[in-house]
Structure formats: C-alpha cells, structure tokens
Amino acid sequence: MKEVFLNTFKPKKIPSLDGIRGLSCLFVIIGHFSYLYTPWFEEVFGRRLGLSLAFSIGNQYTGVTFFFVLSGFLITNLLILERQQTMKVDFKVFFIKRLFRIFPAYYFYFACIGLYFSLAAPLEMSLQDILAAITYTSNYLSDKNPWHIGHFWSLALEEQFYLIWPIAFALSYKRFGFRFPLTMIILAPLLRVATYYLFVDLRPRISIMTHTRIDSLMFGCLLAYAYRADLFEKLNKGILKFKLHYLSAFHIFFFSRFLQMSFQGKYTMTVGYSLDCLGMCLLIIYAVSNKSLMSRFLNLPLMVHLGSLSYSLYLWHVPFAWKAYGDENLALRLILIYLCALGSYLLIEAPFMRWRQRVFS
Question: How far apart are CA 117 and CA 317, in angstroms?
C-alpha cells in the first residue's frame, strides 16, 4: 500500500470516543449487576421473556466488545500516525507508554483486593490465579476465576494485543496495509471452530482468549485505516442512506442477543462476534461523523467524564456487584464504585500519566 493512501497527521481529538468508552463501561456495569436482578425480570415478565430482557439489557459482553473495538482503533491510529511521521514504529516507547497507562491502576486494584481479603474475608484464589493475574494471562491460565478478578481476562486479552499488534503492524503495514486486519477478521471464526474441536480443554475459554476474539480488535484496526484514509465521511453517507445505524443498534442490543440465546455457541463461535463488531464499527463511524442526537449525548460532559474514568470504573465495579452482598443498596453500591474509580484515577492514573508526559515531552 502506498504512503499517499493515508492522511497526514490530524492533531484534533476524535469526537464521541470518550462518550463511547463511558457508555461501554456502563453496559459492563449494568451487565454484571443484572445477575442480581434477573429474578426480578423473571417474576415481572415471565421466565422466557424475563430472561431474554435481562440478557439483552445486561449483556456485559456488549460493553467489553466495544472496548476491544475502540482499543484496536485507537492504538492503530497512533501507530499509523507514528509511521507517517517517522517511517518506523518505536517499540520501546510504545511499550513504556502502555506500561505507564495500564500497569499502575491494575496492580493497585489487585493489591487492594488481596489486602482486603487477607484481612477481612477469605477469597478462593489459587496460586495459579495469582500468577495469571500478575502476568496478564488470566484469559488462558486462570484456575478458579474468582469473581473479584474475573474481569481480568479482558485486560489480559488487551495487553496481549498491545504486545503483539505493534510488531505485526510494523511488519505488515507497507506490504499489506488494511488487508492484514481484514484477513484476520475472516480467519477468526475458523480459529474459534478449530480451537473448539481440536483443543477440548479450551472450549470454556472460547469467548475470552486472544486468538479466538482477535476479530473484535482487528475490526477496530481496520476502522483506523479507514479513518486515516478519510473514508469516514463516505462510509457515513452509506450508513445514513440505508439506515444502517438503526439496524446496527437493533442487531447488537436485541437481535444478536436473541440469536445467542437460541443458538448459543453455534452462533457466537462462528459469525456472532464478528457481526456484533461490524455493527459497532458502523455506530462508531456514525457517532464520529455526525452532529446527531446520539453524538450530542456522547459528547455531554458527563459522558466524557465517565469515559475518562472508564478504566478505573471497569476495574473497581466488580467487587460491588458481588452476589454475596445481596441485592440491596443499589444506589450506595454505585456511589462507592464511582468514588473508588475517581480515587484510583486521581491518585494513581493521573499522576502516572503526567509522569509519562514529562518523560516523553
């Protein structure tokens, strides 16, 4: 692919992305809290319809998948910009920047959870769980998968992507360009099916392993190529013409959930994840390219604020959605989640990001 295919450096902030990140985090939180309130849905709407509504409204995988797509998009956008400016990718700088951004809040949360349960209550966590959490390999090596660190699988998946993708990008950029992530998207369903039939012990992990969810990230990478090539406006015209933003939202939040409940792994293992990610890409293009009601909502100060706290919110919400606490005091739980996330951001994330800025300024 020729260099002229890509745009020159765009310093402006991409609109709506913070809001999408904040909304994705809310989906995850609602998803985990829905486990507490599923009986209420069953009682009010009947078992079948109630389960369907609870699953549709509270499917945390929707939010997590949005995070994966956004991660692929944002990281690839940065890599393309660096490649345009310097004609190379500085792996050392990239990895150190990721370390400053991700590790401090992650290990701080893990230390707090370990300290709390060592003093207040026993937590069933094997040595294998601890080692998997420390090494960002929970999606492959976790043992008992304790609730309080159960969400580490997605962070492990993203960290593995951060380690592998810059190298793959540098090797494939000039010769293959956008065709590399496109190829990986096509191969992803085959990888899931092959893993299911060839590695029986890994079947319970199909939805959380990097190689079986690689299409979620590669859709974001492909989206970054389209953005840097100034294709968003053209694609958005097609989205508006055929009302694809409405169809995408309906598919992601309702029809896909119905297909999951009806066909289970036969749907998700083959095309389910890929179709969800395609719809998410169309919604991102629409949100970035339009001054619509959706875009205005995503760019509200509250949504931008939640987006800036999304990493800490994701880390800290899980303990407060624990079934053992019962289903009371929902408002108090949400307040505590916010306060813990805000504290983590102000005391851990923000100082390390300022330090990173000084180091690389």
Answer: 16
Domain range list for the chain: 3-360
CA atoms of 242 and 239, how far apart (whole Å): 6
Q: What 8-state DSSP symbol labels residue 200?
A: G
Summarize pLDDT for 132-179 with one digit per residue, the tens.
Answer: 999 999 999 998 888 899 999 999 999 999 999 999 999 999 999 999
Per the CB < 8 A criterion, the answer to whether 142 and 129 are in contact is yes
Q: Which residues of 249-274 are buried (b: 16+ CB within 10 A; e: fewer)?
A: bebbbeebbebbeeeeeebbbbbbbb
- DSSP labels for 245-306? HHHHHHIIIIIHHHHHHHHTHHHIIIIIHHHHHHHHHHHHHHHHH--SHHHHHHTSHHHHHH
For the CA atoms of 252, 255, 260, 266, what is the dihedral angle to 10 degrees? Answer: -100
Structure tokens at 128: 């294998």
* Nearest 10 degrees: Cα torsion 30, 300, 99, 184: 70
Q: What's the whole-model pTM score?
A: 0.92
DSSP state of 10: -
| Nearest by Cα to 333 from 319, 343, 347, 315 | 319
CA-to-CA distance for 29 and 258, rounded, in angstroms?
A: 21
pLDDT at 254 (0 to 100): 85
Lowest mean pLDDT among 9-13, 66-70, 96-100, 151-155: 9-13
Least confident range from 98-102, 144-148, 237-241, 345-349: namely 144-148
- Are 221 and 214 in contact, with CB atoms under 8 Å apart? no
Q: What's the CA gap between 152 and 21, in Å, rounded?
A: 18
Of 309, 256, 294, 196, the closest CA to residue 62 belongs to 256
Q: What is the pLDDT of residue 360?
A: 83
CB 58 within 8 A of CB 31: yes
> Which residue type does 317 have?
H
End-to-end CA, the chain = 31
- DSSP class of residue 144? S
